Amino acid sequence: MNVAVTAASGGLGQAILKYLVEEIGADNVIAVARSPDKVGTPGIEVRSGDYQSVQEMTGAFSGIDTVVIISAPVGDWDRISMHRNVIEAARQAGVRKLLFTSVIGNGKEEDTWFWKTQQVNRQAESDMRESGLEWVVARNGLYLEKDLTHIVHAKGVGVYRNIVGDGRCGYISVDELAYATAKLAIDDHANGQVFNLVGEPLTQAGLVELANQIFGMDVRYEVISDEENITELMKDPKIAARGEKVAKMLTGCFQAVRTGAFDVESDFERAAGRAVKPTLQMIREQQAIMTA
User: Fold this and answer.
1) Which element (helix H / strand E) includes 262?
2) Residue 156's CB: how many other CB atoms inside 10 A?
3) Which of 27, 65, 173, 231 has its CA 20 to 30 A from that of 242?
4) Strand 134-140 vs strand 97-103: parallel, antiparallel, or unpaired?
5) CATH architecture of 3-141+173-198+264-276
6) Running DSSP on this structure, what letter comes out for residue 107?
7) How many Å apart are CA 12 and CA 178, to the nearest integer?
8) What are the residue boundaries of the structural domains of the chain, listed by start?
9) Are the C-beta atoms of residues 129 and 98 closer than 8 Å to each other?
10) Contacts of 83 (CB under 8 A, 6+ apart)
11) How far apart (Å, rounded) are the C-alpha atoms in residues 157 and 76?
């Protein structure tokens, strides 16, 4: 078996590559990226592939058994068509199995600003199921790193603000997601199934409390309005560079947490063969990375 990972230059892609190399060896792992030079995993084959081109992706998938499709980033482009291009390319190239990295949600997100983005994810899941290929859906929980970074940055003012309130979500690190995804990619017993990859459910206040323990902080949590949340997010240069539309979508993620849409039962152990790491351990690992 060999496995290709698309969008392989990103954080999730690189982490999945690392675990696939551990599982099946570097000779059986292929990275596909629009910018191949940005793939930093040593010892593997790297191929050029752009979601906008069926022809280019078909060539990138030549001789590939299994493809991990990392969902296209949110932006001013047609993500539904981009995902369909990748699925069609896999079909034309004779790929046997597809795994799509989607997003958790129990349907309560329908009345949030995140719903439009979620519909794109669910459409890709449907398109993959209808492709005639073997398939697996890995619905990712929200990245622990994202919230943790904002909480730590709030140390200076002593207050971390967003709209979530008492809503709960199973935050999970990219590294844990990558471990489970690699396992699902090579395990044919997982075929035809949807997996929620999340950690233990926590409120934002609970997450802040754990961050305070590990980072030695005294940050408190405060609820703000949806509009104020957009303003807070736009203070992040990376988010600001992508525009207010992205800040509104991310606020929609918080709305989904607030409504309970992301409070879902975890399938991590069934996917990975072991329990998900405790959130405190994942935060401790991130603290080591952030202070290295």
Assistant:
1) none
2) 8
3) 173
4) parallel
5) 3-Layer(aba) Sandwich (3.40)
6) S
7) 6
8) 3-141+173-198+264-276
9) no
10) 51, 69, 71, 72, 100, 120, 123, 124, 127
11) 34
Q: What is the pLDDT of residues 12-31, one digit of tens each?
A: 999 999 999 999 999 999 99
Contacts for 207 with CB less than 8 Å, ≥ 6 apart: 147, 148, 151, 171, 279
Residue 258 pLDDT class (50, 70, 90 cuts): very high
Q: Residue 220 class from Cβ within 10 Å (0-12 exposed, 13-18 middle, 19+ buried)?
A: middle
Contact 69, 100 (CB under 8 A): yes
What does the CA dihedral 221, 227, 233, 239 come to, rounded to 10 degrees?
160
Closest by Cα among 81, 93, 268 to 171: 268
Q: How far is residue 6's CA from residue 135's CA, in Å, rounded to a whole number? A: 15
Query: Token pair for residue 188?
Result: 């044919």
- Distance from C-alpha of 276 to C-alpha of 200, rounded to nearest angstrom: 8
Taking only the tens place, the pLDDT of each residue in 192-235 is 999 999 999 999 999 999 999 999 999 999 999 999 999 988 98
Q: Show the 3-state SS of 35-61.
A: CHHHCCCCCCEEEECCCCCHHHHHHHC
Sequence letter at residue 78: D
